């Protein structure tokens, strides 16, 4: 594994709420993120009642997006460590993922690119409230 540690740093209040603080260390790869849809006002059953006990979550990080227009797909992106580099993979999202202004995926096409230290990630369109910085810290 890497001689470094990867983190997501929240750059917006919505991102901070999703991370539960300013930073989240990514400790398992692939690390999956997507929209929280289990809490939406659907059937009377509580969210956990809709999931079979033996099933595992689709995401490691859930982004709670409110409103009628969504930037974040339920299975939006993942971060992985491959061949000595960190990469971001759009998981076939509708809006894509912006990394340093470059669009990765959209219209369910998927796609990937290498992540560099301090890359800014916007989950969805440029209007998304979920903005993160990808931070790599060298291990001592």
Describe the structure.
This protein is mainly beta and 140 residues long. The chain has 1 helix and 11 strands, in the order βαββββββββββ. The chain has one helix at residues 13-19; strands at residues 4-10, 23-26, 31-35, 61-63, 77-82, 85-90, 97-99, 102-104, 111-114, 119-123, 131-138. It has a 6-stranded antiparallel beta sheet with strand order 2-1-11-10-7-8. It has a 5-stranded mixed beta sheet with strand order 4-3-5-6-9, with helices on one face. A hairpin with a 2-residue loop joins strand 7 and strand 8. The radius of gyration is 15 Å and the shape is globular. Mean pLDDT is 84; it is low at 40-51.
Key terms for this structure?
140 residues; five-stranded mixed sheet; mainly beta; six-stranded antiparallel sheet
| Average pLDDT taken over every residue | 84
Helical run tally: 1
**Termini separation:** 14 Å
Global geometry:
globular
Derived from helix and strand composition plus strand pairing, the structural class reads: mainly beta
In short:
This protein is mainly β and 140 residues long. It has one helix at residues 13-19; strands at 4-10, 23-26, 31-35, 61-63, 77-82, 85-90, 97-99, 102-104, 111-114, 119-123, 131-138.
Question: What's the helix and strand layout?
Answer:
Elements: E1 4-10, H1 13-19, E2 23-26, E3 31-35, E4 61-63, E5 77-82, E6 85-90, E7 97-99, E8 102-104, E9 111-114, E10 119-123, E11 131-138
Parallel strand pairs: 3-4
Antiparallel strand pairs: 1-2, 1-11, 3-5, 5-6, 6-9, 7-8, 7-10, 10-11
